[in-house]
Amino acid sequence: MNTYDVAVIGGGAAGLSAALVLTRARRSVAVIDAGKPRNAPAGHLQGFLSRDGIPPTELLALGAEEVTAYGGELLHGTVSSISRVDDATFEVTFGEGQVLSARRILVTTGLRDEVPDVPGVSERWGRDLLHCPYCHGHEVRDQRLGVLGGTPGAVQHALLLRQWSHDVVYFAHTGSLTALDRQQLVARAIGVVEGTVTRLVVEDDALQGIELADGQVVRRDAVFVRPVFVPNTGLLVELGCVTHDNGWVVADATGGTSVAGVWAAGNAVDPRAQVITAAGQGSAAAIAINNDLVDEDVRHDVADFLTGHADDVTATTAPKENNHA
């Protein structure tokens, strides 16, 4: 069985960033990734300094090259379990029953988006059915935009999106609007369309509009939706990590969880983390993990030194005889 200082579960921006820092610190690192990044449908990612507009797959490929150049190992497979062997060791099972050993664990498994069950939504996800104005708003600026309601925070999503276009329509769908919601939407010159949305109208592989239950089609160039974020934290929960009431794992500023030796970073613990944010969180977690390993290394070295030099230590610390009369 191969043994590493750190096993990183998830090879996205957070995981690769952590692996880069750790390998440069001369730690042995294995990154295990299932090859299903959340942003795979997106053609480009924005807002990443010096990499604005780069395809997500290209960013990950560049990161993987950097990690392997410093000696990190990239392993393909889905992690099925993580178990603690003793106070200083974990076993990770992945793929077709492969097992490795690691002194520390970093989980960067991200989250999954639960979107309304409307025909066309899943197919257009990341293309012209979007969720993040900061990621995609500039690319669809001044176009005819829609916001699909029915999920928590959808109205706030529409209010935010208004700064990218003067033509924004809020589709109530299965949601309801309060008097304050309506007041704010009207004040921002955002149109409101009542009625259940039945499908996204797509022609020639491009969104044309939104169809309602009464057959009406409202022309739109792009539609935004506020998905429900569900963290992929099954491995962390099985390890015994404490969670908030909403199910998200509790982690400190460095990603440290309630379980000694286990860290988490990126969307697995922060639903709002963008790619660049997740990368920063991975870096912070890596530094904390390395510091923790250094502390453990020092304790072991001191114990070994004292064991190997017990006579010398006794001689230097024994009280001297008093020869004075």
UniProtKB/TrEMBL annotation:
<feature type="domain" description="FAD/NAD(P)-binding">
    <location>
        <begin position="4"/>
        <end position="281"/>
    </location>
</feature>
<dbReference type="Pfam" id="PF07992">
    <property type="entry name" value="Pyr_redox_2"/>
</dbReference>
<dbReference type="InterPro" id="IPR036188">
    <property type="entry name" value="FAD/NAD-bd_sf"/>
</dbReference>
<keyword id="KW-0285">Flavoprotein</keyword>
<dbReference type="InterPro" id="IPR023753">
    <property type="entry name" value="FAD/NAD-binding_dom"/>
</dbReference>
<protein>
    <submittedName>
        <fullName>NAD(P)/FAD-dependent oxidoreductase</fullName>
    </submittedName>
</protein>
<keyword id="KW-0560">Oxidoreductase</keyword>
<dbReference type="InterPro" id="IPR050097">
    <property type="entry name" value="Ferredoxin-NADP_redctase_2"/>
</dbReference>
